[in-house]
Write a structure and sequence with these properties.
With 266 residues, the chain is an alpha+beta fold. Helix content is 38%, strand content 17%. The protein is built from eight helices and eight strands, in the order H-H-H-H-H-H-H-H-E-E-E-E-E-E-E-E. Strands 4-1-6-7 form a four-stranded antiparallel beta sheet, with no helix packed on it. A hairpin with a 2-residue loop joins strand 6 and strand 7. Helix 4 runs antiparallel to helix 5. The chain starts with 13 loop residues before the first helix and ends in an 8-residue tail after the last strand.
Length: 266
């Protein structure tokens, strides 16, 4: 267990970074544990830089990555810091040398295709000569007539060249076409990235984490959608096809619930 920083490294510890990010996102340890499925004692231990409960370096890296994404922190610098402080990743094992007998194994004998090719050529030449000798002019004329008829376009071919009717443009709003017997919520990080959490009416987690600027998330449920917005002022919100005005102020944490009614009825 290591608490704090070494004298030679003034970086904040991994646990300190994760704890400050969680507090900044207005999240409790229980909420982070539910979102990441990392047990509460392990979350507490990692925030105190105690990785003994993780079950090894592989699991510790996985827990760090999950917690960092849940609180909106880039996990890669923290993984690199963990590797520096715990001896780095193990070196890959060299591949075993090839068995020498494989190198000296003789190739199987291949069949001699020369005689078969000569026989085939002779048969083709004989068949062509016989056809030309017995066909005469009558065969040539009928062949030409058949070729002329084949070049004429058929009615079905002419009809197939007609351009297809243009398809109607898709609706500009995917939310507007949802069934009326469900609740549909669409969030867009309009001005900057935003942390959000969404659950259905059974409490099942639909999404947790950061939505990048310009990206959108849509959630649908038969009864209710519960939201936690880490920065309400950065989110553009549509509920059941209608825009919700004044979601919240910049940096404000909002906890909202919406049902199949209008946004005001949620």
């Amino acid at each position: 267990m290591s608490i704090g920083n070494s004298p030679a490294d003034d970086r904040p510890s991994i646990g300190r970074v994760l704890q400050q990010a969680r507090i900044g996102a207005r999240l409790t340890v229980d909420e982070v544990s539910t979102a990441t499925r990392v047990r509460i004692p392990i979350v507490h231990g990692i925030e105190q830089d105690d990785f003994s409960r993780c079950g090894g370096d592989v699991y510790a890296r996985g827990h760090i990555r999950s917690l960092a994404r849940a609180v909106g922190v880039d996990p890669e610098p923290l993984i690199a810091q963990y590797d520096e402080e715990h001896g780095g990743r193990p070196e890959p094992t060299a591949a075993a040398p090839l068995f020498e007998a494989e190198r000296i194994r003789s190739e199987p004998r291949r069949p001699n295709w020369t005689a078969a090719m000569v026989a085939a050529i002779v048969a083709v030449v004989g068949f062509v000569g016989f056809t030309l000798f017995s066909g005469g002019d009558e065969g040539t004329g009928s062949t030409a007539a058949d070729a002329t008829d084949a070049t004429k376009p058929t009615p079905s071919a002419e009809k197939s060249t007609k351009p297809a009717d243009p398809k109607p443009d898709p609706s500009e709003s995917a939310v507007a076409g949802v069934p009326a017997n469900k609740v549909t919520v669409k969030l867009t990080a309009a001005d900057r990235q935003a942390w959000i959490s969404a659950k259905d009416h059974n409490g099942r987690l639909l999404h947790v984490g950061v939505v990048q600027q310009g990206a959108s998330k849509t959630f649908t449920d038969s009864k209710r959608i519960d939201l936690v917005l880490g920065d309400a002022g950065a989110v553009k919100l549509f509920v059941n096809g209608k825009e919700v005005k004044d979601v919240g102020e910049d940096g404000q944490v909002q906890r909202l619930s919406y049902t199949k009614g209008d946004p005001e009825a949620g």
